[in-house]
């Protein structure tokens, strides 16, 4: 799947907005920038690498030789990268900032609300555009792994500085102290585990029954 690169998943969602409603979303975004504490639930989700909402007016789509498009709607582009499964991410989003999601997608056509979760997932799935090419510089590491590695690096850098000045016995004490401080930051890098073995087995068992192109 092109949406997945190691532990990370790339999501792109494009939803239409009636032009006369776009100004409402612009106002809501302006308010959100002045009230970052309202996004505490989002900022606290450690599975998220990056998330951004962008409003694109109907006259702002680029002309790459295909001719200027004549569109009836403005659009909201949502771009995010996260580690974990698609379902885990949507669940975490809905649980973490349901009111924030409802504000950001308030003007999107046929938006059902973030709760209950099933209509919200159906809406995201219907408007999601798969990623054609997804590059990840650290496919075996999620953002928590990278933060952990940076803490280990800082500890090693501190030990390097102490090694030149401390006698062996004192350096041994400093080494043990530093190792204890970062022992929880020494994960094993690799691809994330599957969300469910039952799901994987079910997919494998039904492969022979799925009609493939040309068969």
UniProtKB/TrEMBL annotation:
Biological source species: Falsiroseomonas selenitidurans
Task: Tell me the domain of life.
Answer: Bacteria
Q: Segment Disordered: which positions?
A: 190-215
Q: Where is the composition biased (Basic and acidic residues)?
A: 200-215
Q: What is this protein called?
A: Uncharacterized protein
């Amino acid at each position: 799947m092109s949406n997945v690169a190691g532990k990370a998943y790339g999501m792109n969602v494009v939803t239409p907005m009636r032009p006369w409603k776009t100004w409402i979303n612009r106002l809501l975004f302006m308010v959100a920038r002045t009230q970052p504490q309202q996004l505490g639930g989002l900022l606290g989700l450690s599975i998220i690498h990056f998330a951004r909402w962008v409003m694109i007016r109907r006259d702002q789509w680029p002309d790459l030789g295909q001719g200027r498009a004549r569109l009836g709607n403005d659009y909201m582009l949502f771009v995010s990268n996260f580690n974990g499964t698609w379902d885990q991410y949507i669940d975490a989003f809905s649980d973490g900032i349901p009111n924030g999601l409802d504000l950001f997608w308030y003007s999107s056509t046929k938006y059902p609300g973030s709760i209950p979760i099933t209509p919200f997932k159906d809406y995201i799935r219907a408007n999601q555009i798969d990623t054609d090419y997804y590059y990840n510089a650290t496919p075996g590491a999620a953002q928590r792994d990278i933060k952990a590695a940076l803490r280990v690096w800082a500890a090693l850098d501190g030990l390097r500085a102490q090694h030149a000045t401390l006698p062996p016995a004192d350096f041994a004490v400093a080494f043990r102290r530093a190792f204890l401080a970062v022992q929880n930051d020494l994960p094993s890098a690799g691809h994330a585990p599957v969300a469910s073995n039952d799901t994987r087995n079910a997919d494998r068992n039904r492969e022979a029954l799925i009609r493939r192109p040309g068969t």
